[in-house]
Amino acid sequence: MYYDKRFQTDLQFPFVLFSHQQIKTSSTGGFLLAKKDKFDAISERLLNVDQPTLKDIISRMSAGEYVRGVTDAEKDCFQIIQDLDHINGRVLGSTTSKKYMRNEIWSVVAARGAPSWYITISPTDIKHPIALYYAGTNEKYVVDTKPDYSEKFRLISHNPVASARFFHFMISLFIKHILGIGSYHPGIYGHTSAYYGTVEQQDEKIGTMD
What we know:
By secondary structure, the chain is mainly alpha-helical. It has two domains: 13-109, no CATH class; 114-209, no CATH class. It has helices spanning 13-34, 39-47, 51-62, 72-88, 95-112, 129-135, 149-157, 160-178, and strands at 117-121, 194-200, 203-209. α6 (129-135) runs antiparallel to α8 (160-178).
Protein backbone atom coordinates (compact mmCIF):
# COMPACT_ATOMS: atom_id res chain seq x y z
CA MET A 1 0.00 0.00 0.00
CA TYR A 2 2.81 2.42 0.77
CA TYR A 3 6.23 1.36 -0.52
CA ASP A 4 5.41 -1.27 -3.15
CA LYS A 5 2.97 0.43 -5.52
CA ARG A 6 3.44 -1.54 -8.71
CA PHE A 7 -0.32 -1.99 -9.23
CA GLN A 8 -1.14 1.63 -8.38
CA THR A 9 1.31 2.97 -10.95
CA ASP A 10 0.53 0.41 -13.66
CA LEU A 11 -1.19 2.23 -16.55
CA GLN A 12 -3.27 -0.78 -17.64
CA PHE A 13 -4.30 -2.12 -14.24
CA PRO A 14 -7.11 0.41 -13.42
CA PHE A 15 -8.72 -0.15 -16.82
CA VAL A 16 -8.55 -3.94 -16.52
CA LEU A 17 -9.87 -3.87 -12.96
CA PHE A 18 -12.78 -1.58 -13.84
CA SER A 19 -13.65 -3.71 -16.87
CA HIS A 20 -13.73 -6.89 -14.79
CA GLN A 21 -15.86 -5.14 -12.19
CA GLN A 22 -18.39 -4.14 -14.85
CA ILE A 23 -18.47 -7.70 -16.22
CA LYS A 24 -18.99 -9.06 -12.71
CA THR A 25 -21.87 -6.72 -11.87
CA SER A 26 -23.51 -7.39 -15.25
CA SER A 27 -23.26 -11.15 -14.73
CA THR A 28 -24.65 -10.85 -11.20
CA GLY A 29 -27.58 -8.78 -12.43
CA GLY A 30 -28.24 -11.29 -15.21
CA PHE A 31 -28.28 -14.22 -12.78
CA LEU A 32 -30.62 -12.40 -10.40
CA LEU A 33 -32.96 -11.53 -13.24
CA ALA A 34 -32.92 -15.12 -14.56
CA LYS A 35 -34.11 -16.42 -11.19
CA LYS A 36 -37.26 -14.30 -11.24
CA ASP A 37 -40.61 -15.72 -12.25
CA LYS A 38 -41.00 -13.25 -15.12
CA PHE A 39 -37.84 -14.43 -16.89
CA ASP A 40 -39.84 -16.50 -19.37
CA ALA A 41 -41.88 -13.45 -20.37
CA ILE A 42 -38.66 -11.41 -20.76
CA SER A 43 -37.13 -14.08 -23.00
CA GLU A 44 -40.29 -14.16 -25.07
CA ARG A 45 -40.18 -10.40 -25.62
CA LEU A 46 -36.51 -10.50 -26.62
CA LEU A 47 -37.07 -13.28 -29.14
CA ASN A 48 -40.16 -11.70 -30.69
CA VAL A 49 -39.18 -8.03 -30.70
CA ASP A 50 -40.38 -6.09 -33.74
CA GLN A 51 -37.10 -5.00 -35.37
CA PRO A 52 -38.55 -2.28 -37.65
CA THR A 53 -40.40 -0.73 -34.70
CA LEU A 54 -37.25 -0.84 -32.57
CA LYS A 55 -35.19 0.85 -35.31
CA ASP A 56 -37.88 3.53 -35.73
CA ILE A 57 -37.85 4.28 -31.98
CA ILE A 58 -34.04 4.49 -31.97
CA SER A 59 -33.94 6.90 -34.91
CA ARG A 60 -36.67 9.12 -33.44
CA MET A 61 -35.01 9.27 -30.04
CA SER A 62 -31.61 9.95 -31.64
CA ALA A 63 -33.19 12.96 -33.35
CA GLY A 64 -34.22 14.33 -29.94
CA GLU A 65 -37.89 13.39 -30.14
CA TYR A 66 -39.74 12.36 -26.98
CA VAL A 67 -41.16 8.93 -27.77
CA ARG A 68 -43.88 7.14 -25.85
CA GLY A 69 -45.13 3.63 -26.42
CA VAL A 70 -48.47 3.82 -28.20
CA THR A 71 -48.82 0.61 -30.15
CA ASP A 72 -48.36 -2.84 -28.64
CA ALA A 73 -45.06 -3.28 -30.53
CA GLU A 74 -43.71 0.02 -29.17
CA LYS A 75 -44.79 -0.88 -25.64
CA ASP A 76 -42.95 -4.21 -25.90
CA CYS A 77 -39.78 -2.38 -27.01
CA PHE A 78 -39.93 -0.02 -24.04
CA GLN A 79 -40.61 -2.94 -21.73
CA ILE A 80 -37.44 -4.61 -22.97
CA ILE A 81 -35.50 -1.46 -22.03
CA GLN A 82 -36.95 -1.62 -18.53
CA ASP A 83 -36.04 -5.29 -18.27
CA LEU A 84 -32.43 -4.58 -19.26
CA ASP A 85 -32.30 -1.76 -16.69
CA HIS A 86 -32.34 -4.42 -13.96
CA ILE A 87 -28.90 -5.45 -15.18
CA ASN A 88 -27.53 -2.14 -16.41
CA GLY A 89 -28.44 -0.39 -13.15
CA ARG A 90 -25.77 -2.41 -11.32
CA VAL A 91 -22.99 -1.32 -13.67
CA LEU A 92 -21.02 1.69 -12.41
CA GLY A 93 -21.00 4.62 -14.80
CA SER A 94 -23.88 3.31 -16.92
CA THR A 95 -26.77 5.48 -18.08
CA THR A 96 -29.20 3.47 -15.99
CA SER A 97 -27.14 3.91 -12.82
CA LYS A 98 -27.23 7.68 -13.39
CA LYS A 99 -30.99 7.50 -13.89
CA TYR A 100 -31.33 5.63 -10.59
CA MET A 101 -29.26 8.33 -8.88
CA ARG A 102 -31.61 11.01 -10.21
CA ASN A 103 -34.54 9.03 -8.83
CA GLU A 104 -32.82 8.86 -5.45
CA ILE A 105 -32.22 12.61 -5.45
CA TRP A 106 -35.86 13.31 -6.28
CA SER A 107 -36.92 10.93 -3.50
CA VAL A 108 -34.78 12.82 -0.99
CA VAL A 109 -36.24 16.13 -2.19
CA ALA A 110 -39.77 14.75 -1.89
CA ALA A 111 -39.08 13.48 1.63
CA ARG A 112 -37.02 16.38 3.06
CA GLY A 113 -37.73 19.34 0.80
CA ALA A 114 -35.59 21.26 -1.65
CA PRO A 115 -31.86 21.61 -0.87
CA SER A 116 -30.75 24.60 1.16
CA TRP A 117 -27.14 24.40 0.00
CA TYR A 118 -25.37 23.35 -3.18
CA ILE A 119 -21.71 22.85 -2.37
CA THR A 120 -18.95 22.13 -4.89
CA ILE A 121 -15.73 20.64 -3.57
CA SER A 122 -12.54 20.12 -5.56
CA PRO A 123 -9.60 19.07 -3.35
CA THR A 124 -6.29 19.97 -5.00
CA ASP A 125 -4.27 16.78 -4.77
CA ILE A 126 -1.20 18.16 -6.53
CA LYS A 127 -0.64 20.71 -3.74
CA HIS A 128 -1.66 18.75 -0.66
CA PRO A 129 1.03 16.93 1.39
CA ILE A 130 -1.32 14.03 2.22
CA ALA A 131 -1.93 13.29 -1.46
CA LEU A 132 1.78 13.55 -2.19
CA TYR A 133 2.49 11.16 0.67
CA TYR A 134 -0.04 8.66 -0.70
CA ALA A 135 1.58 8.92 -4.15
CA GLY A 136 5.18 8.71 -2.95
CA THR A 137 7.23 5.69 -1.93
CA ASN A 138 8.62 7.00 1.36
CA GLU A 139 7.11 5.31 4.42
CA LYS A 140 8.05 8.36 6.47
CA TYR A 141 6.89 11.83 5.49
CA VAL A 142 9.48 14.56 5.92
CA VAL A 143 7.95 18.01 6.42
CA ASP A 144 11.03 19.85 5.18
CA THR A 145 10.84 18.08 1.83
CA LYS A 146 9.34 20.46 -0.74
CA PRO A 147 9.29 18.91 -4.23
CA ASP A 148 8.96 21.28 -7.16
CA TYR A 149 5.85 21.48 -9.31
CA SER A 150 7.08 19.05 -11.96
CA GLU A 151 7.92 16.43 -9.33
CA LYS A 152 4.50 16.81 -7.66
CA PHE A 153 2.77 16.60 -11.01
CA ARG A 154 4.69 13.44 -11.87
CA LEU A 155 3.83 11.77 -8.56
CA ILE A 156 0.10 12.47 -8.83
CA SER A 157 -0.25 11.70 -12.54
CA HIS A 158 1.50 8.33 -12.16
CA ASN A 159 -0.67 7.20 -9.24
CA PRO A 160 -4.43 7.69 -9.72
CA VAL A 161 -5.08 5.44 -6.71
CA ALA A 162 -3.40 8.00 -4.45
CA SER A 163 -5.65 10.75 -5.84
CA ALA A 164 -8.75 8.61 -5.26
CA ARG A 165 -7.71 7.80 -1.68
CA PHE A 166 -6.99 11.46 -1.00
CA PHE A 167 -10.35 12.53 -2.44
CA HIS A 168 -12.19 9.94 -0.33
CA PHE A 169 -10.30 11.06 2.77
CA MET A 170 -11.13 14.75 2.27
CA ILE A 171 -14.79 14.17 1.43
CA SER A 172 -15.21 11.90 4.47
CA LEU A 173 -13.77 14.65 6.68
CA PHE A 174 -16.09 17.22 5.08
CA ILE A 175 -19.19 15.08 5.67
CA LYS A 176 -18.23 14.35 9.27
CA HIS A 177 -16.91 17.70 10.50
CA ILE A 178 -18.47 20.32 8.20
CA LEU A 179 -21.89 18.72 7.81
CA GLY A 180 -21.82 17.02 11.21
CA ILE A 181 -22.90 13.60 9.92
CA GLY A 182 -21.83 10.86 12.35
CA SER A 183 -20.27 13.44 14.66
CA TYR A 184 -21.06 14.52 18.21
CA HIS A 185 -21.50 18.14 17.15
CA PRO A 186 -23.71 19.80 14.51
CA GLY A 187 -22.17 21.00 11.28
CA ILE A 188 -21.16 24.57 10.62
CA TYR A 189 -24.38 24.99 8.59
CA GLY A 190 -26.48 23.74 11.50
CA HIS A 191 -28.29 20.42 11.73
CA THR A 192 -28.09 18.51 8.45
CA SER A 193 -31.22 16.45 7.96
CA ALA A 194 -30.11 14.89 4.67
CA TYR A 195 -27.41 15.11 2.03
CA TYR A 196 -26.69 13.58 -1.35
CA GLY A 197 -23.26 13.54 -2.93
CA THR A 198 -22.29 12.84 -6.53
CA VAL A 199 -18.84 12.60 -8.07
CA GLU A 200 -18.13 13.86 -11.57
CA GLN A 201 -14.92 13.99 -13.54
CA GLN A 202 -13.14 17.27 -12.65
CA ASP A 203 -16.25 18.44 -10.83
CA GLU A 204 -17.05 16.97 -7.39
CA LYS A 205 -20.31 18.06 -5.80
CA ILE A 206 -21.96 17.53 -2.46
CA GLY A 207 -25.55 18.67 -2.11
CA THR A 208 -26.82 19.17 1.45
CA MET A 209 -30.21 19.86 2.91
CA ASP A 210 -30.95 21.48 6.26
